[in-house]
Amino acid sequence: MWRKLDNLNKISETGVVLIIRSDSDKEALAVAEAAIEGGIAVLEITMSVPNALQVIGALSAKYKDVLIGAGTILDGETARAAILAGAELLVSPQLNPDMIKVANRYQAVTMSGAYTPKEVYETLEAGADIVKLFPAEVGGPAYVKAIKAPLSQAPIAPTGGVTPDNVHEWLNAGCVAVGVGSYISKAAGKEADYRKVTAAAKEFLQAVAKAR
Protein backbone atom coordinates (compact mmCIF):
# COMPACT_ATOMS: atom_id res chain seq x y z
CA MET A 1 0.00 0.00 0.00
CA TRP A 2 1.10 3.56 -0.65
CA ARG A 3 2.76 4.43 2.67
CA LYS A 4 1.27 7.89 3.08
CA LEU A 5 -2.22 6.48 2.62
CA ASP A 6 -1.36 3.75 5.12
CA ASN A 7 -0.24 6.41 7.61
CA LEU A 8 -3.37 8.52 7.12
CA ASN A 9 -5.49 5.43 7.66
CA LYS A 10 -3.56 4.68 10.84
CA ILE A 11 -4.46 8.10 12.22
CA SER A 12 -8.15 7.81 11.37
CA GLU A 13 -8.45 4.18 12.48
CA THR A 14 -6.76 4.56 15.87
CA GLY A 15 -8.14 8.06 16.42
CA VAL A 16 -5.35 9.20 18.75
CA VAL A 17 -2.14 11.16 18.17
CA LEU A 18 0.01 11.17 21.31
CA ILE A 19 1.99 14.37 21.84
CA ILE A 20 5.17 13.90 23.85
CA ARG A 21 6.87 16.91 25.47
CA SER A 22 9.48 16.20 28.10
CA ASP A 23 12.58 17.69 29.70
CA SER A 24 14.87 14.87 28.60
CA ASP A 25 15.35 12.54 25.67
CA LYS A 26 15.47 9.57 28.05
CA GLU A 27 12.03 10.41 29.44
CA ALA A 28 10.61 10.95 25.94
CA LEU A 29 11.81 7.51 24.85
CA ALA A 30 10.45 5.86 27.99
CA VAL A 31 7.04 7.51 27.57
CA ALA A 32 6.89 6.61 23.89
CA GLU A 33 7.76 2.96 24.49
CA ALA A 34 5.29 2.63 27.36
CA ALA A 35 2.53 4.25 25.29
CA ILE A 36 3.25 2.01 22.31
CA GLU A 37 2.96 -0.97 24.66
CA GLY A 38 -0.48 0.39 25.55
CA GLY A 39 -1.53 0.42 21.89
CA ILE A 40 -0.62 3.91 20.70
CA ALA A 41 0.18 3.72 16.99
CA VAL A 42 0.72 7.42 16.20
CA LEU A 43 2.90 9.75 18.22
CA GLU A 44 4.56 13.14 17.94
CA ILE A 45 7.88 14.09 19.50
CA THR A 46 7.96 17.85 19.85
CA MET A 47 11.10 19.68 18.83
CA SER A 48 11.31 21.11 22.35
CA VAL A 49 12.48 17.69 23.58
CA PRO A 50 16.29 17.65 23.97
CA ASN A 51 17.85 15.70 21.09
CA ALA A 52 14.42 15.36 19.53
CA LEU A 53 15.77 14.21 16.16
CA GLN A 54 17.74 11.42 17.80
CA VAL A 55 14.63 10.32 19.69
CA ILE A 56 12.66 10.28 16.45
CA GLY A 57 15.43 8.30 14.75
CA ALA A 58 15.59 5.70 17.51
CA LEU A 59 11.82 5.21 17.60
CA SER A 60 11.38 5.06 13.82
CA ALA A 61 14.14 2.46 13.58
CA LYS A 62 12.68 0.28 16.33
CA TYR A 63 8.93 0.54 15.65
CA LYS A 64 8.22 0.03 11.95
CA ASP A 65 4.46 -0.27 12.48
CA VAL A 66 4.15 2.96 14.49
CA LEU A 67 3.77 6.35 12.82
CA ILE A 68 6.47 8.53 14.35
CA GLY A 69 5.99 12.26 13.98
CA ALA A 70 7.77 15.50 14.77
CA GLY A 71 5.95 18.41 16.37
CA THR A 72 6.29 22.17 16.63
CA ILE A 73 7.76 22.33 13.15
CA LEU A 74 8.13 26.04 12.38
CA ASP A 75 10.05 26.08 9.10
CA GLY A 76 10.99 24.05 6.08
CA GLU A 77 14.53 23.38 7.28
CA THR A 78 13.31 21.69 10.44
CA ALA A 79 10.72 19.78 8.42
CA ARG A 80 13.42 18.33 6.17
CA ALA A 81 15.67 17.48 9.14
CA ALA A 82 12.78 15.67 10.85
CA ILE A 83 12.03 13.64 7.73
CA LEU A 84 15.69 12.69 7.38
CA ALA A 85 15.61 11.54 11.01
CA GLY A 86 12.69 9.23 10.24
CA ALA A 87 9.55 11.28 10.89
CA GLU A 88 6.62 10.50 8.61
CA LEU A 89 4.25 12.95 10.30
CA LEU A 90 4.92 16.68 10.69
CA VAL A 91 2.87 18.85 13.03
CA SER A 92 2.82 22.63 13.42
CA PRO A 93 0.84 24.88 15.80
CA GLN A 94 0.01 27.28 12.96
CA LEU A 95 -0.17 27.42 9.18
CA ASN A 96 3.34 26.90 7.85
CA PRO A 97 3.36 26.65 4.04
CA ASP A 98 7.07 25.74 3.96
CA MET A 99 6.49 22.76 6.25
CA ILE A 100 3.59 21.55 4.13
CA LYS A 101 5.57 22.02 0.91
CA VAL A 102 8.50 19.96 2.19
CA ALA A 103 6.22 17.29 3.64
CA ASN A 104 4.26 16.91 0.42
CA ARG A 105 7.48 16.69 -1.57
CA TYR A 106 8.53 13.65 0.48
CA GLN A 107 5.00 12.31 1.13
CA ALA A 108 4.95 12.87 4.87
CA VAL A 109 1.59 13.43 6.55
CA THR A 110 0.91 16.97 7.82
CA MET A 111 -1.19 18.27 10.70
CA SER A 112 -1.23 22.03 10.43
CA GLY A 113 -2.56 24.26 13.20
CA ALA A 114 -5.58 26.51 12.70
CA TYR A 115 -8.44 27.93 14.73
CA THR A 116 -10.66 30.40 12.87
CA PRO A 117 -12.72 29.50 9.79
CA LYS A 118 -10.34 31.61 7.69
CA GLU A 119 -7.33 29.75 9.06
CA VAL A 120 -8.98 26.36 8.49
CA TYR A 121 -9.75 27.33 4.89
CA GLU A 122 -6.21 28.59 4.26
CA THR A 123 -4.75 25.42 5.81
CA LEU A 124 -6.78 23.23 3.48
CA GLU A 125 -5.84 25.40 0.50
CA ALA A 126 -2.15 25.12 1.41
CA GLY A 127 -2.40 21.34 1.07
CA ALA A 128 -2.34 20.09 4.67
CA ASP A 129 -3.68 16.60 5.24
CA ILE A 130 -5.28 17.28 8.62
CA VAL A 131 -6.26 20.51 10.35
CA LYS A 132 -4.98 20.59 13.92
CA LEU A 133 -7.57 22.62 15.81
CA PHE A 134 -5.53 24.51 18.38
CA PRO A 135 -6.18 25.51 21.11
CA ALA A 136 -9.22 23.23 21.03
CA GLU A 137 -10.31 23.66 24.64
CA VAL A 138 -11.27 27.29 23.98
CA GLY A 139 -14.29 26.41 21.85
CA GLY A 140 -14.87 22.76 22.62
CA PRO A 141 -16.80 20.23 20.51
CA ALA A 142 -19.53 22.76 19.78
CA TYR A 143 -16.96 24.91 17.98
CA VAL A 144 -15.97 21.96 15.79
CA LYS A 145 -19.61 21.53 14.77
CA ALA A 146 -19.81 25.22 13.95
CA ILE A 147 -16.66 25.08 11.83
CA LYS A 148 -17.74 21.96 9.98
CA ALA A 149 -21.14 23.42 9.07
CA PRO A 150 -19.65 25.45 6.18
CA LEU A 151 -16.42 23.42 5.94
CA SER A 152 -17.70 19.86 6.21
CA GLN A 153 -14.77 18.57 4.14
CA ALA A 154 -12.21 19.68 6.74
CA PRO A 155 -10.50 16.74 8.51
CA ILE A 156 -10.15 18.19 12.00
CA ALA A 157 -8.09 16.85 14.90
CA PRO A 158 -8.41 18.90 18.12
CA THR A 159 -5.49 19.30 20.51
CA GLY A 160 -6.05 20.49 24.05
CA GLY A 161 -8.64 19.51 26.62
CA VAL A 162 -9.45 16.06 25.21
CA THR A 163 -9.90 13.31 27.83
CA PRO A 164 -11.40 9.81 27.93
CA ASP A 165 -14.49 11.33 29.53
CA ASN A 166 -15.18 13.79 26.70
CA VAL A 167 -13.54 12.20 23.65
CA HIS A 168 -16.94 10.93 22.49
CA GLU A 169 -18.14 14.53 22.21
CA TRP A 170 -15.23 15.44 19.95
CA LEU A 171 -15.68 12.40 17.72
CA ASN A 172 -19.44 12.93 17.53
CA ALA A 173 -18.73 16.51 16.43
CA GLY A 174 -16.97 15.12 13.36
CA CYS A 175 -13.29 15.00 14.34
CA VAL A 176 -11.15 12.52 12.40
CA ALA A 177 -8.85 12.00 15.40
CA VAL A 178 -7.76 13.75 18.59
CA GLY A 179 -4.41 14.94 19.90
CA VAL A 180 -3.65 14.07 23.51
CA GLY A 181 -0.68 15.10 25.59
CA SER A 182 -0.28 15.14 29.34
CA TYR A 183 -3.13 12.74 30.14
CA ILE A 184 -0.94 9.95 28.78
CA SER A 185 2.56 11.39 28.50
CA LYS A 186 2.67 12.71 32.09
CA ALA A 187 0.90 9.76 33.66
CA ALA A 188 4.13 8.32 35.06
CA GLY A 189 4.32 11.16 37.57
CA LYS A 190 7.26 11.96 39.82
CA GLU A 191 7.65 8.27 40.57
CA ALA A 192 8.50 7.65 36.88
CA ASP A 193 6.12 4.68 36.90
CA TYR A 194 5.75 4.17 33.16
CA ARG A 195 3.26 1.37 33.70
CA LYS A 196 0.81 4.20 34.34
CA VAL A 197 1.54 5.55 30.86
CA THR A 198 0.68 2.17 29.37
CA ALA A 199 -2.52 2.03 31.42
CA ALA A 200 -3.52 5.57 30.42
CA ALA A 201 -2.91 4.77 26.76
CA LYS A 202 -5.14 1.68 26.98
CA GLU A 203 -7.84 3.66 28.76
CA PHE A 204 -7.82 6.41 26.13
CA LEU A 205 -7.95 4.00 23.21
CA GLN A 206 -10.81 2.09 24.84
CA ALA A 207 -12.73 5.36 25.22
CA VAL A 208 -12.21 6.11 21.53
CA ALA A 209 -13.34 2.63 20.52
CA LYS A 210 -16.43 2.93 22.69
CA ALA A 211 -17.26 6.37 21.27
CA ARG A 212 -17.18 4.97 17.76
List keywords for this structure.
eight-stranded parallel beta sheet, 212 residues, 10 helices, globular, 17% strand, 8 strands, 48% helix, TIM Barrel, alpha/beta
Characterize the overall form: globular
The name of the CATH superfamily reads Aldolase class I
Number of helices: 10
Mean pLDDT: 96
Query: In which range does the helix fraction lie?
Result: 40-55%
Biggest beta sheet summary: 8 strands, parallel
Q: How many β strands by DSSP?
A: 8
CATH topology: TIM Barrel
CATH architectural label: Alpha-Beta Barrel
Low-confidence stretches: none
SS strand fraction: 15-25%
| Span of the ends, CA to CA | 25 Å
Write down the domain tally.
1
Give the strand order of the largest sheet, numbering strands 1, 2, ... along the chain: 7-6-5-4-3-2-1-8
How would you spell out the order of helices and strands?
A: HEHEHEHEHEHEHEHEHH
Class in CATH? Alpha Beta
- Rg measurement, Å: 16 Å
What class do helices, strands and sheet pairing give?
A: alpha/beta
What is the secondary structure topology, with strand pairs?
Blueprint: H1 3-14, E1 16-20, H2 25-37, E2 42-46, H3 52-62, E3 67-71, H4 76-85, E4 89-92, H5 97-105, E5 109-114, H6 117-126, E6 130-133, H7 140-148, E7 156-158, H8 167-172, E8 178-180, H9 182-185, H10 195-211
Parallel strand pairs: 1-2, 1-8, 2-3, 3-4, 4-5, 5-6, 6-7
How would you explain this protein's 3D organization?
Strand 2 (42-46), helix 3 and strand 3 (67-71) form a beta-alpha-beta unit. The protein is of the alpha/beta class and 212 residues long. Helix 2 runs parallel beside helix 3, helix 2 crosses helix 10 and helix 4 runs parallel beside helix 5 (97-105). The two termini are 25 Å apart. The model has no long low-confidence stretch (mean pLDDT 96). The protein has a single domain, classed as Alpha-Beta Barrel (TIM Barrel). The chain has ten helices and eight strands.
